[in-house]
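task queued by scheduler; priority normal; single chain, no ligands, no partner chains; default sampling; output format set to structure tokens
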Amino acid sequence: MCKQSFFLIGFLFLIRSGTAQLVNPEHNYARNSPGIVMVQAVFSATVYVNKVDINERIFDKLVDSVKKLDTSGRLLSPSQKLDIVVKALYKSPLRFFSSTNEYFRQARRVQSNGTGFLITGDGYIVTNCHIIDRDSAYIRNKFILETFQEVTQTNINALQTSWAMTLTEEQRNLLSNTYGLIYSQVSSMILFDLQKEFYVLYRADTGVNGTETIRKKATVVIKGKPMPGKDVAILKAEEVTGLPTLVIASDSLIRIGAQALVIGYPEPVTSNSFLSAASGIEPTLTAGIVSAIKKSVNGWPVIQMDAVISHGSSGSPVCNDKGEVVALATFGSLDQGNASLASGFNFAIPMSVVRDYIDSAEVVPGASKATVAFNKGLGFFYQQYYRKAKEKFEEVKQLNSNYPQLGFYLQQCKNRIAGGVDRQPPPRKFVFWIMIGIAAMTAVYLVYKMRKQRNFG
């Protein structure tokens, strides 16, 4: 009977502690989003681009032919005539334009963004290798797009000035597409003195509703290789301390059907022109389930999930329902029909693979003191113990006054305490005696059951 009683007491405590570890998606985001960073790879180079000139003789013939359409000047307005000219240029651009032996020379910087997450308070970050190790074709394409876009606008503005006409939006778009085609086919570009730098951006709290973006230079500590290699990299942000951190799951076993929460910076959100630039640093949460465990072509495991990710989400943590990181979001699946990412078929590298790199770099992951206090505060907050939560958030303020969302939760605690909705947790002694009482009643029930079985026996 004693053994059974002690077993029941232990079992009840296990149930209680296990249940307390589960967190809903809102709580999950609240505790983990402060430790999400945006990873930037910045490429700089001197760019040389062939100048493109218009063939004046052929262009003048085009203009003369348009004038002949309306010799009186009453049938077509100047804007309509210009519209005919622009559409003719768009229809046959290579007839009117050609490259020259002259070059534009520009110093340019382009960047690519991804996601990462902090595993130590002094700035060690996990992300994907392909974010910082872009291949030469990707880099060159970025420079082509950025450079030709600026050169195109310069040419369009020059044409507008020489024609003494104001182009409509449609006409500007047609000319932009025209020049884009010309430069891609007849102009060459040379990159000289290419340099790479890495930065991490993260949120810092400035008050109840205030947030600023901190940008720190980062160095590469260790990296694998982009897919199909082990697409993992560890970065170190410079001159930081007491930052928010995420907790890595100790159990590498992931169940099919388990919840998968991804927190990161998908490009369709960060580049959305209808959203303020300041909101770009706010991470995005997407949810799904683990739908399969597969193997990469090189034989190591990858996790398939249906949580939505896109360009920019690479390097995001995949969290379980306890708020722990179980995987690193890395790649999607191409839809063969339109060559875009197929929705709902995304893959992540399990933390068992990532840990090899963390261990090789001799980094010891661990929650910062500020994160430990903040997570305890959130635990009290979601149980409506607002006074206890406020105490913990005040502790965080002493450790890191810029901890993201700290001002918001402090103010929420004050408002709810003032509104009289604060709960008080029962004293520990009270909880202990309740557990003892439950165990005693269970023991009595077992004795009764055993005696009843003997009597029937």
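post-processing summary
- The CA atoms of residues 294 and 302 lie 5 Å apart.
- The radius of gyration is 31 Å.
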